[in-house]
TrEMBL record:
Gene3D superfamilies: 3.40.50.2300, lambda repressor-like DNA-binding domains
Domain of life: Bacteria
Annotated PROSITE patterns: HTH_LACI_2
Lineage: Bacteria, Bacillati, Actinomycetota, Actinomycetes, Micrococcales
Record protein name field: LacI family DNA-binding transcriptional regulator
Pfam families: LacI (PF00356), Peripla_BP_3 (PF13377)
Alphabetical list of InterPro entries matching this protein: HTH_LacI, LacI/GalR-like_sensor, Lambda_DNA-bd_dom_sf, Peripla_BP_I
Domain (HTH lacI-type) ranges: 5-59
Keyword Transcription set for record: yes
Species of the source: Arthrobacter gyeryongensis
GO molecular function: DNA binding
Keyword field: DNA-binding, Transcription, Transcription regulation
Length: 374
């Protein structure tokens, strides 16, 4: 059996140091492109592959970052996709059947885009990404399993109690992908939820002259609560009364009903609104996925958007661009959010004992057809 090529063989063939070969694989951004090309060509000709386990033993590190989310599909039975921001919010599985009337629009989801950003930054910085997922019955053992294999961990909101995350943060850096409702002492990266929703609501008030504006989904997660706060600010500044509706499938406390059909629930809500004294001028939804549900329900009820009512979302999912009407929304930089989380972790891994980092990224108002802006 032929002897496997080593890092020494690659260094000799490329006429560089062993350290340069190592950096070319683990931290390529620190090596000149011409030099890295020489190293890669030498490695290719020799058939050399770096050993992650050997590097880990040498450095006392794994060279991996973990990202913990929750399953988009219900592990207990046939699939159900989860709505961004709520670990317990499920879209009914028939949305993803072959005759689901185009609900493929919802993909890629918020989490897909954030994960892509984490992957991009890990690749750029020479780290491997390990993704862990938990179902509805997830336990601390689920997250400990991945935490024990990585150097740092990014966690989506509402995935685990803060006490669990603090225990993990005693061993490895942890970053939360949201602003928690209370100070946790952990690293975090979030977006301008409050300001973004204030700007969107002001657009409806000042540009379109709307006065009866109803906010959908004020409860359920820190992101939703912050967006609700932005709506309240804009309405107070304009001297307007506030109105709220639960998100589809939820009660006034934000609790999701068991086995709820979100499409049927949104239909029932629109029927109640349209059969009353008057529809509101606009529905301001806390996430795009719910805005799309209401747009469909309004179309089934024969209510014109934006002619009779405006509808807006928040997130900037690709679905909003292909929907008819196209969805006015606040686009958060989902890929940049993932990259920032990975960057924070990599910095904390290299600088143990550093103070926690809190980063807030800007958002962008995107005006389209559903608010009346062609």
């Amino acid at each position: 059996m032929a002897k496997k090529p080593t890092i020494y063989d690659v260094a000799e063939r490329a006429a560089v140091s062993i350290a340069t070969v190592s950096l070319s694989f683990t931290q390529p951004h620190r090596v000149r492109e011409s030099t890295r090309t020489l190293v890669m060509e030498a490695a290719h000709k020799l058939g050399y592959l770096p050993s992650a386990s050997a590097r880990g033993l040498a450095r006392g590190k794994t060279g991996a970052i973990g990202l913990f989310s929750y399953d988009y599909f219900n592990r207990a039975g046939a699939g159900a996709a989860r709505v961004h921001g709520d670990a317990d919010a499920l879209l009914p599985r028939d949305l993803f059947s072959d005759d689901a009337n185009g609900e493929f629009r919802l993909f890629p989801l918020y989490h897909d885009e954030v994960q892509r950003g984490v992957e991009m930054e890990c690749r750029r910085r020479g780290f491997v990404l390990m993704v862990g997922e938990g179902g509805g019955g997830r336990s601390e053992a689920d997250i400990n399993d991945i935490a024990g294999r990585v150097d740092g961990l990014a966690v989506f909101p509402n995935t685990f109690p803060v006490e669990v995350l603090r225990r993990i943060a005693e061993r490895i850096p942890v970053v939360e992908l949201a602003d928690p409702p209370e100070e946790t002492g952990l690293n975090r990266v979030s977006v301008e939820n409050t300001e973004g929703m204030r700007v969107l609501t002001n657009h409806l008030i000042q540009h379109h002259g709307h006065r009866a504006i109803t906010f959908v989904g004020p409860s359920g997660s820190p992101d939703r609560e912050q967006r609700f706060a932005g709506y309240l600010l804009a309405m107070a500044e304009a001297g307007l009364d506030t109105q709220t509706l639960p998100a589809p499938g939820r009660d006034a406390n934000g609790t999701l009903g068991s086995g709820v059909d979100l499409a049927a629930d949104s239909d029932a809500t629109i029927h109640r609104l349209s059969s009353g004294a008057a529809l509101p001028d606009a529905l301001v939804c806390s996430v795009d996925a719910e805005a799309l549900l209401y747009l469909d329900a309004l179309e089934r009820a024969g209510v014109e958007v934006p002619g009779q009512i405006a509808v807006t979302g928040f997130d900037g999912l690709a679905a909003g661009r292909v929907n008819r009407p196209t969805l006015t929304t606040v686009r958060q930089p989902m890929i940049a959010l993932g990259r920032a989380a990975a960057s924070i972790l990599i910095h904390q891994i290299a600088n143990p004992g550093s103070e926690p980092v809190a980063k807030e990224l800007p958002v962008e108002l995107v005006v389209r057809e559903s608010c009346g802006c062609g």
